[in-house]
Specification:
With 370 residues, the protein is an all-alpha fold. The chain starts with 12 loop residues before the first helix and ends with a helix. The chain has a 3-stranded antiparallel sheet with strand order 1-2-3, with helices on one face. A hairpin with a 2-residue loop joins strand 1 and strand 2. Helix content is 68%, strand content 3%.
């Protein structure tokens, strides 16, 4: 299967070009945010880009054949993080390799997309059976539980939304969706009420503050809302054309002097984009992200089998959802979550995860049915 011949006319060069262009812009903006991360991100881009191109010529069906092994390895890594992972800011999310740190939950996104895609393909005929869906829910719930207890609620919600998109695209019956909505809406209201009660045990205090800051920003204007408000100020100060590269005067001051826009090179990279290249540049960045999502959906539409289609849909959901959340946080229309902006934010594990997913999606495109 690895010797399968491909026609390069089916290769999605536009997707490759946009991914490298966006990643290159990411290096420039990371350099503006904190130049100490620039070289590491650049070297990581070269490595991850090479992995993406190599994987684009590896038959994705071969990788899918090992979906159960990948699932097991994923569980082992997530469990290892909880036992012997590096603790930063009260959470154990990283494994220290000496020369760098990796975040297994980022790999969980890709592995679970593959696993769920294969599962749905194997149960194509009986996917509407509640026993099949219940088994899938349990299999998805185990790694999600390991991620949420790190604790990493934002990544858990991210993975959940990605997998829901894959399951929906896999042909989930509309009656299940309607029933799920009828259950989820009142549960969400109950959840918001419960986390405000004394001695609640579901969330960490900082997680509750992030949610309440979003629901009642004026109450937290002088505390947890500061970070996002200064991000909005930085973006707005860029006006139409921006101040130019390395001229992030507002966001740089708040980051280095008062700490009001922390982790600017990761979670709030869009504040640098808005300040330095303005509205026009921000729209271009969003458009490039949208092109990646659209290209993945085009590949999904032309895929030759269900697993290929769902892998491409999963990548479209991952890039689209994370971009929406990250930019929504930076512009203060969503609660502060800590999700990176795909291809743009600093983080080699996140970059590698995205590149691996795009590499597999490119191979799906090479094997299209027409």
């Amino acid at each position: 299967m690895l010797k399968q011949k491909y026609q390069l006319k089916n290769y999605h060069w536009l997707l490759v070009i946009v991914v490298f262009l966006l990643s290159g812009l990411g290096v420039l903006f990371i350099n503006s945010a904190d130049s100490s991360y620039t070289m590491k991100q650049f070297v990581g881009l070269l490595f991850c880009g090479g992995v993406m191109l190599a994987l684009s010529f590896v038959n994705y069906n071969v990788i899918c054949d090992y979906s159960r092994i990948l699932y097991a390895v994923n569980l082992i890594l997530l469990a290892f993080v909880k036992v012997a992972g590096v603790k930063v800011g009260g959470a154990r999310r990283w494994i220290n390799l000496g020369f760098t740190r990796v975040q297994p939950s980022e790999f969980t996104k890709i592995i679970m997309i593959i696993f769920v895609a294969v599962y749905i393909q194997e149960h194509e005929e009986d996917f509407d059976d509640w026993k099949v869906l219940l088994r899938l829910a349990v299999l998805c719930g185990v790694p999600l539980l390991l991620v949420v207890i790190e604790p990493d609620l934002s990544t858990t919600l991210d993975i959940t939304c990605i997998l829901l998109a894959v399951i929906f695209a896999g042909g989930l019956n509309a009656r299940f969706i309607r029933k799920a909505i009828l259950v989820i809406v009142p549960l969400a209201a109950l959840f918001i009420w419960y986390i405000q009660t004394p001695n609640q045990i579901l969330l960490q205090d900082y997680q509750v503050k992030r949610i309440m800051t979003f629901l009642n920003p004026s109450k937290y204007a002088d505390t947890t809302a500061y970070q996002q408000e200064n991000s909005v100020m930085a973006i707005g100060s860029g006006q139409l054309y921006g101040k130019g590269l390395n001229n992030n005067t507002i966001s740089d001051v708040t980051a280095t002097d008062t700490g009001l826009v922390a982790e600017q090179q990761t979670d709030f990279i869009f504040s640098v984009v808005g300040e330095e290249v303005g509205f026009i540049g921000s729209v271009i960045v969003i458009a490039l992200l949208a092109i990646i999502v659209i290209q993945c959906l085009i590949i999904a539409h032309r895929a030759k089998n269900i697993s290929g289609r769902l892998i491409a849909v999963g990548m479209a959901a991952m890039i689209g959802f994370q971009s929406f959340i990250n930019i929504g946080v930076a512009t203060h229309i969503l609660p502060n979550t800590g999700l990176t902006l795909p291809f743009m934010s600093y983080g080699l594990t996140s970059l590698l995860s995205c590149m691996v997913g795009i590499g597999m999606t490119l191979n799906v495109g090479l094997q299209r049915h027409y």
